From TrEMBL:
It holds the Pfam family DUF1688. PANTHER family: PROTEIN URG3, PTHR31687. This is DUF1688-domain-containing protein. Residues 324-346 are annotated as: Disordered. InterPro entries: DUF1688. It comes from Antrodiella citrinella. Coiled coil: none annotated.
Length: 346
């Protein structure tokens, strides 16, 4: 569509637009709940969960929802994001009292907070205050070997961790800095020696964002990212749910009071992200994903470079977690442990 326009963008601008789209899509893609759906008028289809969120994000992008420049709708910039109120975001995502979405306020807050982050971090996002400005920063961090431009994954990860730090809700602070998706783990406190030893960093959405941005940059521009094997798995409820549903992990009997079970017959507790069981579940998920990846590679005879963790997450653990959830809980397809989400963590 872009290439067929009267004023087609060059290859770098196409990559910038895809970075724009991927970044806001990840921010909007926290679990929407079991009841929300999105109807796409053009296709006549109705979608739910991740598919619905993805289709909604693309349609919002094409409608210029994230752009502050009417003449350039296919972009995300600070001027457009500042207007992403809960009311406008709800309308764009078809959220109503009859079609509720978990954490719609949190999602809208992330978008408006992103506007401030883009403006205040020109080093990463450039003078245009767009996520796509990351491309110029990464180019400055790259090296060229022959005809191939190479970038270490730490440059992208560092830009996202530092550049997007202001968008996350204020939870824990350490050294005066808000930590985002970092939580104290009660079982580590007994062995903690230094301040912060009991904290477990997850940064799930930032990790997902990093994985998501690799493909458009590599495929559109032909760049190569090095050090991808240093990335961890994503500690979210599909990967973690697979481990619980298959019996690899289980909640210690009697450790969670009955008040956390809204429907005792279901056997599914509902817990906040800060609950020790959720923190331990997510931490063990990161560890087990590495173990699963190693076992799969051994089974198929491939190296880490040939079968990176990102591919295993997409094709095996995340998909597997979703499929077994549908089998075990066909009415909802939800996880075996329910999480109170505000749309900014999962």
């Amino acid at each position: 569509k872009w290439k067929a326009s009267t004023n087609p963008p060059d290859t770098k601008e196409i990559a910038r637009r895809l970075i724009d789209l991927c970044l806001v899509s990840v921010l909007l893609d926290a679990g929407a709940g079991n009841t929300w759906t999105y109807h796409e008028a053009e296709s006549g289809q109705t979608f739910s969960r991740s598919e619905g969120l993805g289709v909604a994000s693309i349609n919002m992008f094409e409608d210029g929802f994230f752009s502050g420049d009417p003449s350039n709708p296919y972009q995300v910039d600070a001027a457009g994001l500042i207007n992403a109120t809960t009311e406008r975001t709800s309308q764009a995502m078809q959220v109503t009292p009859e079609n509720p979405m978990i954490g719609i306020e949190g999602r809208a807050s992330l978008l408006t907070n992103l506007a401030s982050a883009l403006k205040s971090n020109a080093t990463f996002f450039g003078p245009s205050a767009r996520p796509g400005g990351l491309l110029d920063f990464l180019e400055s961090e790259s090296i060229t070997e022959g005809t191939t431009r190479k970038v270490h994954i730490s440059s992208l990860w560092g830009a996202l961790i530092e550049g997007l730090a202001p968008i996350w809700p204020g939870r824990l602070t350490f050294g005066g800095a808000s930590l985002g998706d970092v939580w104290p783990c009660a079982v580590l406190q007994a062995t903690a020696v230094n301040e912060g030893d009991e904290l477990v960093p997850f940064h799930k959405l930032t990790g997902w964002m990093t994985y998501s941005l690799l493909e458009p940059i590599e495929k559109i521009l032909g760049w190569t990212f090095e050090g991808i094997e240093e990335m961890t798995g994503l500690p979210e409820y599909r990967n973690g749910g697979l481990l619980v549903d298959l019996g690899v992990l289980s909640i210690k009997p009697g450790s969670i009071p009955a008040s956390f079970y809204p429907d005792p017959d279901s056997g599914i507790p509902r817990l906040p992200p800060s609950h020790p069981a959720i923190v331990e579940w997510r931490a063990m998920t990161v560890i087990e994903l590495d173990r699963i990846a190693d076992l799969i590679r051994q089974k198929v005879g491939l190296t880490t470079a040939q079968l990176p963790l990102a591919q295993i997450l997409e094709s095996a653990t995340w998909k597997g977690g979703r499929e077994i959830a549908k089998q075990k809980r066909p009415a909802s397809g939800g996880p075996p442990i329910d999480i109170e989400s505000d749309g900014t963590v999962f």
